[in-house]
Amino acid sequence: MTTAERLRHLAEVAEPVWGRPVTFEAVDRLFQEEMGPQPSLQGQRVAVPVSAVCHVISGNTPQAGLQSLWRGLVAGVPRQLVKLPGAGLPELDRWVADLPWQLREGITLVHELPDETLADYPVVAVFGRDQTIEAFRRKLRADQRLLAYGHRFSVGVIMGAGWNEILAGAVQDILLFDQLGCLSLRTILVSQSGNAFAEALAGALQQACAKRATTHNPAVAAEIHEARNRIRLRMALAEPLRIWTEKAGLPWTVIWNPTPEPVFNPLHRFVEVRPYPGDLAGVLGTERDHLAAVALHPCASAHAETLLPCRPSRICRFGELQLPPIDWPQENRAPFDGFVQWVEIETKQPSG
Amino acid sequence: MNVTIPSQMSASPLDHSLAPVLRWQERLTNWILTGGDDDHFNALALELHAFQKARCPVIAAYAGVAGWQKEPAHWKEIPALPLEAFKRTRVTIFPEEATKHEFITSGTTGETRGRHFMPNLDLYQTAVCAGWAEAGLPDLPQLLLLPTETEAPQSSLATMFGLLQRGRGISQTGLWQEGHRLDAGQLRACVVESAHPLCLAGTSLAFLHLLETSDRIVLPAGSILMETGGFKGSGRQIEKRELYGQLQEFFGLQTDRIWNEYGMTELSSQFYTNDLGNVHRSGHWVRAMVVDPATGEEAKEGATGVLRLYDLANLFSCLAVETRDLAIRRGEEFELIGRDPAALPRGCSREADALLQSEG
């Protein structure tokens, strides 16, 4: 299979990976820009895929694993091992099964990862909580490269009025992946009429969830139930919060919280709306180092620039939060960082 | 769609005098000691709830905000206060200046602790001792792998064992050292010297430490082991089945001689069970209800839900509390599951707990 054929296949199967169709031209451009020869001071620099990558998916959202695996395939990594979480990831299984055999043959999916297997991979990408990453850091030799993708969170920021137009987008950002992704919208900060926005969002979520069956395992249901009761307790203690829920069940929850204390958020369609005082860093406090992305309205450069001190890896429109571009520098890494070895070919005489 | 707005806490003057509370204490003490049927429990619970609601504003306010009906007709309809309330406010029905005892929940550094206040320990002692007896637990000499009440006066667990010592005349030897470290040598000496069966009691963490650092210590025949407290704040987890298997081997006990005590700082009574897969039981003045978190209604038989506890000995604060633990409904009793954070699907979204802790 030629490189072009490979990239064409990967464009065709990219929609479940990136949440929308991806053209061959986009994949080809990504490949050329990230891996094509680049001029350097004494010649050129070329990228050669590493021999093997191990992807450790400890969460239960397929997206992170799919995107990592897809990038490895685009880069041309010949051997990729995917350690699946205990409960498995059927979406990932199906996606791999549907690949052409030339791409599929280099991929191994496993549920167990013995240390001797791990030792065979020069690059290990780990998606998971801090403890998981730390455990792998301890296991790896000095010559093995760890690509750590820790847990992150994303927020929405609405500067100014006119939020009606972004309600549908906010709902999509909340519902996709049941808020379990690092790009899921958890908190929305609103500069004006936040209480009214929260109420409108509750109405939009109610409408969107009306035809979706929601079932949670008992542990998740208990977390949501308890989180709601914590809010009610704070309200009983005369704190000025408000809560909107469905009359029955736990399909969604919206909280208006004008107090400085954030609410406990159990995820699974549980959204907190807070006032936006114009200082995102101040709102996030020490958590800002874990910020993944910001959905912004109006999504204009002038507004976006005010968010840069928080160093989110993306600033985008509402409704786009869960749909990163394929060249998104996740966790401050170039798309193929770790999957390629750069080689400097010094054909020119040193100058000066 | 439901929308709930903040409560206006009652501005009317509250009766906080101690005398009526002490009259209630006498009634409840008598009832705990003499027993009573379900109807009597129901009547007492409803009356006590009304008494507490009139004296503790958060109980009434929470009932209103959380949508409980105003006048419960059965103890299962009494609003159960989340344990969080004990962290955020003073849940008491007596004057603050009458406080003689304050128990504080354990937790990790920086975590807000729950507080439970009492004007005396008389009712607590009655409940602790009667509960021990109703569970059929023997009054064996106790070796404690936990601090004594002198060492940890704000620990409800340490106090509970102190009350047992005074109330039931049980002899006790404390073997706890700072930082959950144990002197295994001293424990071994105590066991060897004893010609009689013993009760070895301690936190799960203390037992785990012992298993990891000491050679086997075989307890005298007829002994029991009482583990409690879980691994909160330690970052340690071990399956109960695995722990009991190791304890059985280490101490030479059958698993039916291994007991679990389930209690909490915010309550005044305890639940006990032995072996694996059995229900927890408490005294006749305590009830439990497993609630479906999706509906707030009582869970179906065999279903898993959130555990609510109704403890008439919890006179000084709130008789009905909603725990953070999951349990399986077994008739009118429950099989405890606890709360396993690892069971929660998190994806790659950063945990809200971490967010709160880092800002706490």
What does this structure look like?
The complex is a heterodimer of chains A (352) and B (360). Chain A is of the alpha/beta class and 352 residues long. Chain A has helices at 3-12, 15-18, 24-35, 62-75, 90-97, 101-104, 115-118, 130-139, 167-175, 194-209, 218-236, 280-284, 301-307; strands at residues 38-40, 43-49, 52-57, 79-83, 107-110, 123-127, 145-149, 153-158, 185-190, 242-245, 253-256, 270-275, 291-297, 314-316, 340-345. In chain A, 35% of the residues lie in helices and 22% in strands. In chain A, helix 9 links the parallel strand 8 (153-158) and strand 9 (185-190). In chain A, 45% of the residues are buried. The mean pLDDT of chain A is 92. Chain B is an alpha/beta fold and 360 residues long. Chain B is 31% helix and 21% strand. Chain B is built from ten helices and 16 strands. Chain B has a six-stranded mixed beta sheet. In chain B, strand 7 (176-177) and strand 8 form a beta hairpin. At the A-B interface, helix 10, helix 11 and strand 10 of A face strand 1, helix 3, strand 2, strand 14 and strand 15 of B. Strand 10 (242-245) of chain A pairs antiparallel with strand 1 of chain B.
How many DSSP helices of chain A?
13
Average pLDDT for all residues of chain A? 92
Judging from the principal axes of the Cα atoms, what is the shape of chain B?
globular
pLDDT below 50 for ≥5 consecutive residues: which ranges of chain A? none
The total tally of domains of chain A equals: 2
Q: How would you summarize what this structure contains?
A:
Chain A has helices at residues 3-12, 15-18, 24-35, 62-75, 90-97, 101-104, 115-118, 130-139, 167-175, 194-209, 218-236, 280-284, 301-307, and strands at residues 38-40, 43-49, 52-57, 79-83, 107-110, 123-127, 145-149, 153-158, 185-190, 242-245, 253-256, 270-275, 291-297, 314-316, 340-345. Chain A has 352 residues and is α/β, with parallel strands linked by helices. In chain B, helix 1 packs parallel to helix 5 (122-134), helix 2 (38-55) packs across helix 3 and helix 5 packs across helix 6 (156-168).
